[in-house]
Amino acid sequence: MGSAPKSRSRKKAKKGPATTSKAADGVVKKHPQKVMRTIETDIEESPLSHLNLSMRRDLIAELSEAVLEDPHSAFAAPKKDDDMDKSERTITSWFESVSKMRRLLLMADVSKNDNDEFTAKLGIMSLLAIFQDILPTYRIRVPSQAEMNVRVSKDTKKMWDYERDLLTHYRLYLQLLEKTWNNGGGKGESSNGGTTPPTGLAVASILCLSELLKSNYHFNFRSNILTVLVRQSNNKRCTKVSQACCDALKHVFATDAQGDVSLEATKLLAKMIKERPNRIRPDVLRTFLSLPLRVHEDEAQAAKLASVANAKKRKKDAEAAEIEDEMKEGESNVDKIALARAQSDTLHSVTLTYFRVLKSEADAKGGRASINPTTDTAVDLLSPALEGLAKFAHLINIDTVVDLLAVLRTLLKERSDTLPIDAALNCILTAFQTLQGPGREMQIDQKEYVTPLYRQLSRLCTDKNSSHTELALKCLSLAFLKRREYSTVRVAAFFKQICTVSLHAPPHTAAPLLAFSRQLVQRYPSVQQLLENEQDVITTGSYTPDVEDPEHSNPHATSAWELSLSKFRIHESVAKQAIGTAEQKIPQLPRESPDRIRATILRDIKEGHIGYRRSMRKHPLSQGGGRGGRDKRNRNNQIRFIAPRNTSQYHLL
To answer: Does the keyword Coiled coil apply (predicted)?
Structure first.
């Protein structure tokens, strides 16, 4: 009978305070509403109303410095003065009675600091720097209730209390950032056509979330940050917000060694793209290009089987498995089986997303005119989807290759004239990389992809986008240098078309194409017939360059007369490559490779430095020697610095 009251007292003690809750990461915390309720009831006036802007700024700097000096004491409130009567309490005394981190959170909340957005912005930026400095590199696991009841050392209990307070204030900071974004113009769908941009404070909150994800994506509450950033990466009202979110996701994809965070972000992006197939920005789809996927789908299947076998073995001894997980979490070594499985699931989500884009584009018949203007974004998504498939084509299995080639064949056959040039070139590039990768064993005639490339070359004449030239060079290299083309007529037709395009194209396109033609002459000697005079060649018919099939153009009925005009181009690099092609000079690789020449010309254009070639012709009545016998290098090659012009600068070269 005497022990009954003691047992009841223990039961009451186990209930704990009524103002506690369990967070998503298993943290038992006090409700922040209790503290805020005390603020509202005791003091109706804002605690910062008596401070001017300069004093608030100095206070934020002082509190931030104090937190960084001693993070362990930043979460504890100072000792209260029991002698002070409640009626005598002032705003200043109350504000100084809460912890340093709580004061910073109050100053960063625009609803608690007299609606001072400048102070709130300083507060959230200061808290960002603080959390980036004090957050650990490991994921905090809060002890369970059974572990809390175990007798531990004083240092261990002190560490548990510090980690619990750190998670509590970090959660409050994340909630503050999300609330600031929602109140500053972030409510509703980002693609609802609204024209009102978010406030500067709201933009600053998203930038803070992006920086937190970059520096602490392995820490707690990463799912909450990923959910917000993935949703706002498609924000069409503020380019700065969407670009910051995409950059943060790219950083996670590029630096995640374990692959679990990348998998989580990929699934969130794939879900958003599936729900909004025609309202996605192309930059959102291009974030997948930062994924360093290296595991083939067949290899990943073996890794999954090994993972299942390991899970069955660990199930027999659950306690040993839990200890092993805790040890692995603290180590920096990468689990190869877990990485292979994560990359396999990531590759599956990415390729499935790309196929959805291709399927929706293949179903749209009749070009851009038949597409609803509100869903015109589907056409813009085709190019990044094909760019991603070209990068990851060597990782997919043979079953996926068949479906991919069928979709690409449909696009190139029915919509090659209406597709943008970058989308059409990416279609061809993806097909070549797939056939030379996992589809190497398939008996497929590559003529179906070489013929569309011939038609796309003529579109480079008036195109000023340098990235399109890079895509065209990659396609030409895969079609004629990485593989052997046995049709001499097809090779000659491409050589003639390249010479024609280079005569009308700007220098950053003409010079690399002529450099590629030099490699084509060295690899295929049959092309040398086009370098001879037309009178010396016996052939029938005439040259027709506008046919769809290059083998029907009859290229041997003409000559590469465009080279005789290209060597007089004022741009030095274009003239040099034209002379080298006409004289069949062996290119000095890698200095005269097409990519190197293109990069050099683009760099010179960016810096405003253009080297031109002056042709000094000798007068027919002049005698040799004297002033006419100067060094030709000083006369022919002249360098001059000019200021770049925004309009028609390429047509003047």
So the answer is: yes
CA distance 121 to 229: 19
Exposure string over 102-119, b if 16+ CB within 10 A, otherwise e: bbbbbbbbbebbeebbeb
One-letter amino acid for residue 407 of the chain: V
Looking at residue 279, its pLDDT comes to 84
Query: What DSSP element (H or E) covers 638?
Result: strand 637-641
Write the CA distances from 464 to 368, 500, 504, 626, 647, integer angstroms. 22, 17, 12, 45, 12
Per-residue pLDDT tens for 449-468? 999 999 999 999 887 788 89
Alpha-carbon distance values, 232 to 205, 248, 469 (Å)? 12, 12, 33
Q: How far apart are CA 167 and CA 43, in angstroms?
A: 28
> Could you report the per-residue pLDDT of 592-608, keeping only the tens digit for each?
999 999 999 998 888 87
Q: Which stretch of 83-92, 152-161, 167-176 has the lowest confidence by average pLDDT?
A: 83-92
Q: CB–CB of 499/574 below 8 Å?
A: no
Between CA 138 and CA 150, with CA 144 as vertex, the angle to 5 degrees is: 110
- Please tell me what DSSP assigns to residue 89: -
394, 409 in Cβ contact below 8 A? no
Whole-model pTM: value is: 0.76
Instruction: Of 549, 447, 546, give the one whose Cα is nearest residue 500.
Output: 546
Closest alpha carbon to 23 in 170, 137, 158: 170
> 74: closest CA among 151, 5, 148, 135?
135
- Residue 352 CA to residue 387 CA, distance in Å, equals 14
Q: What is the C-alpha R_g of the chain?
A: 34
Q: Identity (one letter) of the amino acid at 82? A: D
Ramachandran class of 506: left when φ > 0, alpha when ψ lies in -120 to 50, beta otherwise:
beta
Residue 199 phi/psi, 5-degree rounding, is -75, 165
CA distance linking residue 460 with residue 242, whole number of Å = 31
Single-letter amino acid, residue 226: L
Q: Write down how long the chain is.
A: 653
Closest CA to 166 of 209, 131, 217: 131
453, with CB counted inside 10 A (0-12, 13-18, 19+), is: buried
Using the predicted structure, report yes or no on whether residue 4 has a pLDDT greater than 90: no
| 54, HSE (Cβ side, Cα atoms, 13 Å) | 0
Concatenating the DSSP letter of every residue in 526-542 gives GGGGGGS-GGG----S-
Q: Is the model's pLDDT at 491 over the cut of 70? A: yes
- Would you state the torsion angle of the CA atoms of residues 95, 96, 102, 108, taken in this order, to the nearest 10 degrees? 60
Q: pLDDT digit string (tens) for 337-372?
A: 888 888 889 999 999 999 888 887 766 654 443 444
Taking 3-state DSSP, the helix, strand and coil percentages for the chain, each rounded to the nearest 5, stand at 65, 5, 35
Tell me: pLDDT of 144 over 50: yes
Q: For the chain, first and last CA: distance in Å?
A: 105
Nearest to 211 by CA among 132, 135, 329, 152: 132
CA–CA dist 74, 100 (Å, integer): 5
